[in-house]
Amino acid sequence: MLRATGVRLAESISKHPLNLREASATLLPPLPLYRRILRAHRHLPYEMRSLGDDYVKAEFRRHKDVTNKVHIIGFLSQWKVYLDQLPLGPEAKNFKGKPLDPTVLEKMSAEQLGQLYEVMHVTKDVWKPVSPEQSDGDGKASNGHGQS
Q1: What is the spatial distance between Cα 63 and Cα 70, in angstroms, rounded to a whole number?
Q2: What is the largest CA-CA distance in the chain?
Q3: Cα–Cα distance, 105 to 88 (Å, whole number)
Q4: 3-state SS, one letter per residue, for the chain
Q5: Which of 52, 65, 100, 122 is most buried, taking the most CB atoms under 10 A from its CB?
Q6: Per-residue model confidence as pLDDT tens digits over 28-43
Q7: pLDDT of 65-82, one tens digit each?
Q8: β-bridge mates for residue 141, sequence order
């Protein structure tokens, strides 16, 4: 009986084309998801990796004791979407992020908007390019007063 069920399941899987949207929407358990995100961050530029690792660790720590199943599913599914959108391999070194979807912005609560605003202020200086005249010759940016 078990063998027949297994054969039937295998047949049903092979007869239908793979739906990538459904496959990527599958949830991962928290720990494997956390590990995959941190592994994906290894390929990002240093500043993005540092900020991303700290943020991921803090969010997973903050949600460690949550018992609301709907909240847990939402949390894990959004982090899975984030993981699926991260570039992998060499192209990740040139990754500069992506624009925030306006519909997502409209759905955010006041608390979420406040957090986004804080992240914006923390990161605003990270991506300012250093021009050659701002550099003091050894690759360090000067502070405009002749001292670094």
Answers
A1: 13
A2: 81
A3: 26
A4: CHHHHHHHHHHHHHHCCCCHHHHHCCCCCHHHHHHHHHHHHCCCCHHHHHHHHHHHHHHHHHCCCCCCHHHHHHHHHHHHHHHHHCCCHHHHHHCCCCCCCHHHHHHCCHHHHHHHHHHHHHHCCCCCCCCHHHECCCCCECCCCCCC
A5: 52
A6: 899 999 999 999 999 8
A7: 999 999 999 999 999 989
A8: 135
